[in-house]
Amino acid sequence: MENGKIFNRQKQKPQRQELRGNMPMPEKILWAQIRNQQLGVKFRRQHGIGRYIADFYCAQLKLVIELDGDSHYQNGGQEYDQVRDEFMHALGLTVLRFTNRDVMNNLDGVLAVIKSLTPSQPPPATRPASKAGRSKAKSNPLPTSPCSRGRGRLPV
Question: What local confidence, expressed as pLDDT, does residue 73 receive?
Fold first, then answer.
């Protein structure tokens, strides 16, 4: 490893930038829901971990989220994913895997699984009183649709 560095090695930077610039639609959709601490924690996209690049990573939760497209089910893809997951687990990281189909057809379920791993958030702060009276900030909780937790995959 590059001077013992595990995260975001310099030699991977061009590849990480390329991946961020050409995200598949399911990654774009999930990113729109988890970016800017919308779930109360910071996620990074295309984050280098060792020789791998994770689709999404939350350092606070030590959580890796991978979206698996068709290539993960062809020519040794699942074996590669298993070795990769074992590497992540050896670092103390949790890996959630969802299929692209999960994101496209059951985004609420995907978000519910991710949300179940995030710390509960305090209620939103209220705004200062105005002449018209107090107005409270609205919260939009995630739906709690049931889903399978086996490897983070959801039923379609």
Answer: 61
